[in-house]
Automatic annotation (TrEMBL):
It comes from Fuscovulum ytuae. It comes from the Bacteria. Keywords: Plasmid. This is J domain-containing protein.
Length: 65
């Protein structure tokens, strides 16, 4: 099952990890990005988006034969 937050990014499977990270940063509200106390949570969110994208790419690369 794909993460709903990742699906809202609307990225193609061919997107680079850097593109995924940029989209994830833009998905957060500026006030959320500004709070220093949320730094660990933001990093966790970015890692989750990158992992979801990698899983989607891996699932897309698997042969169906």
């Amino acid at each position: 099952m794909t993460d709903p937050a990742y699906q809202r990014l609307g990225l193609p499977v061919t997107a680079s990890p850097y593109t995924v990270l940029r989209a994830a940063v833009r998905a957060l509200h500026p006030d959320t990005r500004a709070v220093r106390g949320f730094r660990a949570a933001r990093k966790r969110f970015y890692r989750q988006m990158l992992c979801a994208h990698a899983a989607r790419q891996a699932a897309d690369d698997t042969p169906t034969d």
